[in-house]
């Protein structure tokens, strides 16, 4: 950024003033033009020690979501980079490097190992460990790497940052990505378990990127087995932000405003290209279609020019605003820490219809050391969001639809099309495999989900034997209220694309979940021996209640009219549903190392579940590691900072089934009885 400051004396010659102002404006124009210039940057990312390519290294334009990853040769290409921008190069276990572009088109970078990270404390299941003492593959992503990404979900910010984790985003406003860890781990839902400050979740879309202090990803069975029946697809542990002791209050603002646009949009054939292709393929079959388009919408058959030439993707797409603003206040005294924050996010969808997401979050964390032997704390996150969902079938319709039909045909009567004069593919003889994509998006644009969620965690930690034995009890409660509404108005595009009467569906779904954990941790060292033992017990309940109502002939497309009582009394439907799942678990872990070289970890979890006929499942794991870099014969070499050999075994489970579905149920049967053909 360039700043010019000029002070003009009152007695300065008027002509010279004008001349100086002209020069100033010219300079500002040049600087502005430079700032807006975009370049394509390419290069190679290599390891500073071995000069080998860093496969999968992450490259992002600082302060944006524009980024890419390196290929198998360590090469990357990044388009539309601001000439005055900054590229951020990162990879797990290596130091992050920032490089100013300064108009360059080639930027090569070397990444070095971050040895300091070996001493970092890593959050693992029901405890912590130093990174160098791990016997299982656990990746850690810190807050600065998450908050710097302009995404609506924290998991989307992990794209390209965690080896073995596949993150695929749909792009729909407010939707979370599809996440898999080391491939598919089970049947059904393959998403990992998310643990937020001790509470279990199926997704973390309600969290804001700036709420998170760090994310630990437990990738193999030996690391995840301590979560037992929930861990088949891996475990993601999220720690929300906390204050620091003996620090003054620090106020931080984080915000951005951006525009999303679709990239790599499929280039579809125009009307001339489409007609040429289909006539060459089968003139007898497609000639009536081509002639019908010319007759109805204009054109010339001999030159294959058409009055209708619609790019359906272009009709559906638009630039979409996305903005995020947050304020955090954190600090602490000698005995207490605190961190509070508020955040607002808004995202518009790229489909040109009512399609958006907005979320307001409040977060508060307090820890207090009441005495030398007692520490208490709480963490609360409140999230309130509103999401309008687009009708995604419009994308497929746009792919199928030929360009020979316009979006609108204003010559149609009210008996042929209403309330808007959309053109129909059936006007030129196409079958029910084709529909007007813009009409699909327009007439299915009132699908709303409102979500109010409160997550609260309270804990007390007793230091029974200083620096050796401590007991911690933690209670987590999650309440979520989801109000859904889908309204479809009456419309007519053709006999194959119509809705004769309005339909309104309303759904209220409530979730009440709690987890109560109790752990006893013993830590001791003698000589070169180090031991950590954990014993724990956990009780949990997951309860869902759902009430749904439907009505037809509800008038209007305004919120004040969208109530079931406004529809036909005879057409109303009401349904009620619910479930309740309870679980009880006991678990243990022992971690031992000798001189930091030879490491052993053993875990065992027994899970009792109300979902199964066989109530208990057992999930053991074992892992060993040899830190070769700590051996004396490695002390005189300067090539390797860390070299560790690991072996592990673990058993995990999957509980993604309906409650009590393993129990046999009575059902009807037909059989012969006397002269009767059947009896139930």
Structure description:
With 680 residues, the chain is mostly beta strands. Helices cover 12% and strands 45% of the residues. The protein contains seven helices and 35 strands. The protein has a 13-stranded antiparallel beta sheet with strand order 17-20-21-22-23-24-25-28-29-30-31-32-33. It has a five-stranded mixed beta sheet with strand order 10-15-16-13-14. The longest helix is centred in the middle third of the chain and has 27 residues, at 271-297. It is globular and about 95 Å long. The N and C termini lie far apart (82 Å). The model is unreliable at 1-35 (pLDDT under 50).
C-alpha termini separation:
82 Å
> Helical amount among residues, as a percent range?
10-25%
Which word captures the global form? globular
Structural class by sheet pairing and helices: mainly beta
Mean pLDDT: 86
Counting copies of identical and different chains, the oligomeric state is single chain
Poorly predicted residue ranges: 1-35
The Cα radius of gyration reads 31 Å
Strand order of the largest sheet: 17-20-21-22-23-24-25-28-29-30-31-32-33
Strand runs, count: 35
Tally of DSSP helical segments: 7
Biggest sheet architecture: 13 strands, antiparallel
**Into which percentage range does the β-strand content fall?**
over 45%
